[in-house]
């Protein structure tokens, strides 16, 4: 069991579920970049980890030059690793890695509304469906109308939580573009579009509460 979120990232080296999830997330990021109209592309990543999903794609993607991104992550070791990758890719003028609380609207000011919002490894760390609804509602602050939302949700105890997420998204003003289960069949990865309007001012300063702990990550 990982003792913290830094150690949790080591599971990417050994767990097929996480490796497959990363592959699908990267595929969806590339799809979203390819589908974006000419010109600037704004991206935010909520609880970004070390940014390997986005940075792994920007490394080689022809639209990388159009991207400006803000990644928000609370673990300073992960941020340090992400910043080193950004430097090595020569993307420091375009990609900001904020060491801060991703649940606070203030940490996105100046970087939103975004064209692509990455919320991977987050939905399984919310207390309940009410909290998921709250976060989805608050995506109106982070997202442009039509923004791509990329998300993940693991299953546990035979419960297909990703189906619940899809159902809630369907009834909350999001259009499904793609959804895949990992070949391990216990992790869902979704790509949706936000159909609602952007809100220039957040409804709440606290967008959601992240209550998960690394040793029990779902
Ligand atoms: C399950 S991991 C997912 C990381 C990354 N998005 C990925 O998919 O690889 C959850 C991440 O959320 C971060 N986190 C937890 N609470 C946070 C908060 N309040 N603000 C920012 N990041 C937070 C953790 O440090 C951890 O890196």
Give the topology, please:
Elements: H1 5-8, H2 16-35, E1 41-46, H3 52-58, E2 67-73, H4 76-88, E3 95-99, E4 114-119, H5 129-142, E5 143-154, H6 161-170, E6 174-181, E7 187-194
Parallel strand pairs: 1-2, 1-4, 2-3, 4-5
Antiparallel strand pairs: 5-7, 6-7
The structure holds S-adenosylmethionine.
Task: Note down, in words, how this protein is organized.
- The structure is a single chain.
- With 218 residues, this protein is an alpha/beta fold.
- The protein has one domain: Vaccinia Virus protein VP39 (Rossmann fold, 3-Layer(aba) Sandwich), CATH 3.40.50.
- Helices cover 31% and strands 24% of the residues.
- It has helices at 5-8, 16-35, 52-58, 76-88, 129-142, 161-170; strands at 41-46, 67-73, 95-99, 114-119, 143-154, 174-181, 187-194.
- The protein has a seven-stranded mixed beta sheet.
- Helix 2 packs across helix 3.
- It is globular, with a radius of gyration of 16 Å.
- The mean pLDDT is 97.
- S-adenosylmethionine is lined by residues 5, 47-49, 72-75, 78, 101-103, 120-121, 210, 217.
